[in-house]
Every structure is written in structure tokens, then in C-alpha cells.
Amino acid sequence: MKIIITVTSLKDWDFDIKDVEVVTGKQYLTNPVYSKLKNARVFNLCRDYKYQNTGYYVSLLAAARKHKAIPSINTIQEMKTLSVVKILSTELDSLIQKSLKDIKSEKFILSIYFGKNLSKKYDGLSLQLFNLFQSPFIRAHFALRDGKWTIQNISPIASGDIPEDHQPFVEEATKKYFEAKKFSVPERTTAAYSMAILWDPLEKTAPSSEKTLQKFIKAASQKGIQANLITKDDYSTLASYDALFIRETTAVNHHTFRFAQRANAEGLVVVDDPESIIKCSNKVYLAELLKMHQIDAPETLIIHKDNISIAPDILGFPIILKQPDSAFSQGVSKAENMNEYKKKVTDLFEKSDLIVGQQFLQTDFDWRVGVFNGEAIYACKYYMSKEHWQIVNWNKNGQYGKVETMPVEMAPPALIKTAEKLSKLIGESLYGVDIKQKGNKFFVIEINDNPNIDTGIEDAVLKDKLYSKIMDVFLSRIQKSKQVILN
Is the pTM of this model over 0.70? Predict the structure, then answer.
């Protein structure tokens, strides 16, 4: 991959960086040599990113040429929008407060050079802000209000605007960045394509174990895809891949959603995609979707402050109460009587204006049907955790009940039909549909993006073929995306 740095004037760049070509923004825009490049990484250090100025056009045309630009057009727009800056920085709130707690003034400016600051004590915050707002050099403006630090503004630093006393540090930080090749995927062998698998090594309830992830990596390799494990700290490498496979529990207000959004904007094949995460993570949306498409579910009511009193009359006791963005049975509780109901509803209203109330159906197990690309790929019976009403008992450190896996073709046809129908209403990503069975009737409980796939459980029937089937879909989608680029 050819590495290009664009500047407004060659006088703005006085550093000697190996294997990096430095050109003016005007040269990059007008010289046909650059428009014909098939594989390039462009670090845009022009002085001005204003709409329709040279710096803006460098990132815009880089996108048109399928070059990977830092900052991208999306990042340029995000830095200009204060509301976006505040939303994206919310997840860093605790890190911001911890990093700036010793600052005595009410304002603070942090200069970040490829994720580094002159003071090492700010490196953690600098790296995370660089991950959020990927631009080679950025300046973050903070203000102290009511005892709390908030980000007021994020802006790029042009190469010509680097303070003279910062120059030696910037040169060293730039050299280290390019030498480490953090902007690029590890060197490929014979693989035609590349995939990032996002995971959290410390997550206790991860959808796939590390052993299982190695099976995904092996299956990808057999399809000509080089798969690499990445964590939330590898955000800056994302644009260099062809696909992103999220194997970490997702949520909208979480870095997994940000990864999915950025990968989608960069044109990567993404599983699970941002829209699927939004839809699957909200039980209020699901309740309305099931109702609109007449898909059987337990009696369900969206509870708000005006109908609290009538919910027990409609649903009866016990009542299942769900936080709209609950996942893996967390944020789900059961109220056996009116006193429990009032207390639990009050607690849930502190987190959300709407709550999902649902009729309780007693069963020995829940069906889980895994669906990818609209097709069922596994069917499991998840039995209730011992002496508990859910498949997971969070009061006993996340204790699961036993699991039985069967061939999809041996599962009840109505079960598979229901799971596939609901999945197609959400999208074409990877889903786990939870269904209860009463006699010959099937009732949808929920649909999860990013469902469990683990060694010896969901793969118990297909074994390595399960991973191969999943990678077949990735390969087809990557090839299709590349064909669109060529056309």
C-alpha cells in the first residue's frame, strides 16, 4: 500500500519519514498519477478542511478513488458538528474526568499527534480521542463546568500549524506511528482479502470464546480471507480491512456500534451492521414489528407512565419486565405480584421512558435458531438454568442450563419458518431468534444480533462446516463489494 502525505505547501513538512511520499494537496487532486493508484493510504495534513477547500477535496476525492484517507470525509464532518463531538465523546467521560482531574484552570487544550501527547500521562485519553476522530494531528478543547470536564471542540492541526517547540516530538511520534504500521493490516501472505474480528479478551459473556474465534480464522483462511483479531484500541486500523466481524456483545451506546458505523461508512462488509444493532437491541421496536407482521409472541404491552396500573390486568402475574436495550437476559426480571411489579417498574423507569411488559410462558427450554443471510444455520434447545426461570442465572455468575443442538432440517418446520421470516424483516446479518414452544405453536421472545456461536454448542451438528458456511457469505459479499468498485 502506497503511503501519501498531503500538505498545503511542501514547506509545511520538514520531517524525513521513510517510505512515505509527501505531495501538495493540489498535486494529489490534479496529477493523473494519483487518480490511477489502486491501493493508497492518504494522510491529509492540509491547512484547511472547510467545505470545497483543498483539504476537503483531498479526502473527498480519496473516497472516490477508493484510497483510504485520514481524516475521512465522515471524520471531517463529525469534527465540525458539536452535537456529534459530544455524543461520540460520552463513552470517554470517566477517562476524561480521571485524566484532567489535576488541572487547576477551567480550560485545557490537548494536542494529539498520532494518538500521542507530549505528556505521557495524557496518552490514554489521546489514543481514545484519536480513535474517535481519526486525523493525524488533532486539538481537543476542554472546559470545566459545574466541576465536570467536557469537550467543547475538536479540530485538526495542519502540519504548518504545529508549534515550533512541538516539532521534535511530532517527528518522533510520526516515525513511530509509520514504523509500527498501525495504519495498515498485518502483511498478507496469499490471502486475497482481509477481515477484522472485533473481540474483548476480558468479556465474560462473549458470544464466542477465543478457541471458537480461531475456528473462524481458520475457516476464513480457507476462503482466501486473512482474519485478524482486533480490540477497541485498534479503531485506527479499521479502514484497511475488507470486512468487520463483531464477536463482542453489542449495544448502541457502545464502541461496538461505533465500529460498525465507521466500517459501514468505509465500505467494509459488516456483521453485525449498525441498523441490525439498533433494531435488535431495542425490545420496544421488536414488539411493534411482531405486531405489525402478525408474528406470534407472548401477550406484550409497552408500559409507560400513563398505563402502569392497567398492565397487570392485561398481562396477569407473573409479568416479565424488560429494559428496552437488554441483552443476554440481563435487564429482564419477573414480577410475581403487585408489590414486586411496582418496585421493578419504578427502577426501570429511571433508565427508560418505555418498558416492555410481557406475559410469562413457563417452558423447560427456549429454542434458539441462528440465522445468517436469511437462512437458518443452527437450531438449539437452551434449557433453563437449574432452579431458575431463565436460560442464564445472573445471580449465580451467569450459570447456563444445558444445551441440545439438532440439524436444522430436523427442527420443527414452523420454528425455522418463523425465525427466518423475522430475521428477514430485520436484515441479512447474523441473528439469534429466541422462541418458546407451547404444543404446536411457536412464540417469539426476542431476536438478538451477534448471537452465541461456540465450540461444542452451536457447532455441535455442523462442526467446522458451520464456520465455513459463515465465511462463504463473507466471501460472497466482499467479492460483490469489490465488483461494485470496479464497475
Answer: no
